[in-house]
Amino acid sequence: MVTIRAEIPSDFAAREALLNKAFGVKRMRKTSEKLRKGRLPAQGLAFSAINEKGKLVGTVRLWNIIAGSAGPALLLGPLAVDEKARGAGLGSALMRHALAEAARLGHGAVLLVGDAPYYARFGFAAGVTQSLHLPGPVERARFLGLELSPGALDGAEGLVAASGRLAEAEKAAA
User: Fold this and answer.
1) E strand or H helix at 152, and its extent?
2) Do 64 and 42 touch, CB atoms closer than 8 A?
3) What share of the chain has pLDDT > 70, as a percent?
4) Is 112 helix (H, G, I), strand (E, B) or coil?
5) What's the burial of 170, exposed, middle or buried (CB within 10 Å: 0-12/13-18/19+)?
6) What is the CA radius of gyration of the chain?
7) Binning pLDDT at 50, 70 and 90, where does residue 25 land?
8) Can you give the pLDDT at residue 172?
9) Which domains does the chain have, with CATH numbers?
10) Which whole-number Å values give the CA distances from 69 to 51, 126, 133, in the listed order?
């Protein structure tokens, strides 16, 4: 039995270990990381999957961005599942949970860089990101988008930029 819940501060070390194991430390050099660096996840959109023993076995976060001329949107990632928990649909459950919560909170669109065949099952496609550009190299076929609100990415063009809460500003306010 796995429970998906909001991420809490005590998840940090386990989440980072899981991400390092799943993607390696080179993950910090990826273009998507440039949009996350120094930022906090979008409010209410960071989730942990916890097994019956209380171990973190999955994670997904969404981040505030500006999708060029389309305006505010979210960037999804990274999504990771512990290798011992794979194959049971946990990644899909995390995705569905995150997307449903983003829609419930009124967000219009989600972008990501990932495996197109995997993310197509959730409605992601490369067509809606055709005229958008990331602040670094990326395989175009892996730059995908999903409209949570119909038309949210219509005519979207330009550079995708970070937005949202700065991590340092949050620390200073505490």
Assistant:
1) none
2) yes
3) 97
4) strand
5) exposed
6) 16
7) confident
8) 57
9) 2-173 (3.40.630.30)
10) 41, 17, 11
Q: Is the pLDDT of residue 29 over 80?
A: no
- pTM of the prediction? 0.93
> What pLDDT is stored for residue 30 in this prediction?
84
Three-state secondary structure readout of 34-98: HHHCCECCCCCCEEEEEECCCCEEEEEEEEEEEEHHHCEEEEECCCEECHHHCCCCHHHHHHHHH
Q: Which residue, 131, 127, 138, is CA-closest to 77?
A: 138
What is the model's pLDDT at position 99?
98
How far apart are alpha carbons 161 and 59 in whole angstroms?
Answer: 23
Residues 6+ apart with CB under 8 A from 42: 61, 62, 63, 64, 74, 102, 107, 164
